[in-house]
């Protein structure tokens, strides 16, 4: 299976039992046809034999030509082949029986197998693969297209990015691009991320979203959502495939028109102001560095192992950050950058209406 993801050709293989989950997770990406892959990804339950050169700490292994990053649900081995092709092996760690049941009940998601697999694939394999390329940068932002141009709504976690984007579903001209992480190229084009949106309890206030996300789920699943939602609407969420939420999904690239940073601060009402592109660059790096710190730790450990054993590191955080700064400075210099200041306390419906109005109006003004 070959797909166009983040503007590049990815080839996938792996255990036959995981193929249906892989196909479902990647169904919204375009087929790559006869293109040569830039990334080969194998997904399975057992790892191939690799002899590490050093292991510091226990969750990070360094090799002569690669590294292994270990996470709670998956181990990912990264290697550069003879050319520039990136070779990736992801080993899923199964969770069975009582342990899996307890984890689902305590989790905010009560996730199905396909939802768990899709999240592992996107968060620990596909998004980190972007770090190894010099022409793209990940941004912690929700994104949609309006009339063919992309808009990013960025900010820290919980600031309301997804809420605003879900409200934009009412606009017939809107196409889904990403819910949480989007990939921007050095030509100011936004590449779609088809990871399934996370919908929190508070996203369901005053609309039909709750019935949509609970449709077809079992009684335990529904009870789990309703109980947690009653206790704290921010403590429960569900996932849905983007094509169930939006009339149109955009997995291919689109030109970036506007970037909005949502910032909670001491203001009396929601307001929008211009944002200096240089500040937007540094804010973007700061947010993604915090949001993806679990992977960034491995890059620091890779550098440590390289220094300790007098060998080249596969990739360092300093290299990544320098590349991000270059790509962002080049791309954001050509688009409108704005800050949306939001009071510490604001009605959810008021927030959705006001921010979506700002985005729609801003995108209309940006049209040539």
Helix content: 25-40%
The count of domains is: 1
How far is it from the N-terminal to the C-terminal residue, by CA?
Answer: 39 Å
Number of strands: 19
Poorly predicted runs are none
Beta percentage is: 25-35%
Which sequence of SSEs, written as H and E, runs from N to C? EEHEEEEEEEHHEEHEEEEHHEHEEHHHEH
Oligomer: single chain
Biggest sheet: strand arrangement: 3-1-2-4-9-8-7-6-5
> Nearest-angstrom radius of gyration?
21 Å
The computed structural class is alpha+beta
- The number of helices is 11
Reported for the largest beta sheet, the result is: 9 strands, mixed
Describe the structure.
The protein is of the alpha+beta class and 368 residues long. Helices cover 36% and strands 28% of the residues. The protein is built from eleven helices and 19 strands. The chain has helices at 19-26, 97-106, 113-129, 161-167, 209-214, 219-231, 242-245, 277-291, 293-309, 317-332, 348-366, and strands spanning 2-5, 8-14, 30-31, 39-44, 54-55, 60-62, 66-70, 74-80, 86-92, 136-146, 149-154, 174-178, 181-185, 189-191, 198-200, 237-239, 253-264, 271-274, 336-342. The strands form three sheets. It has a nine-stranded mixed beta sheet, covered by helices on one side. The protein is globular. The chain starts with a strand and ends with a helix.
What topology does this entry show?
Blueprint: E1 2-5, E2 8-14, H1 19-26, E3 30-31, E4 39-44, E5 54-55, E6 60-62, E7 66-70, E8 74-80, E9 86-92, H2 97-106, H3 113-129, E10 136-146, E11 149-154, H4 161-167, E12 174-178, E13 181-185, E14 189-191, E15 198-200, H5 209-214, H6 219-231, E16 237-239, H7 242-245, E17 253-264, E18 271-274, H8 277-291, H9 293-309, H10 317-332, E19 336-342, H11 348-366
Parallel strand pairs: 2-4, 4-9, 11-17, 17-19
Antiparallel strand pairs: 1-2, 1-3, 5-6, 6-7, 7-8, 8-9, 10-11, 10-12, 10-13, 13-14, 14-17, 15-16, 18-19
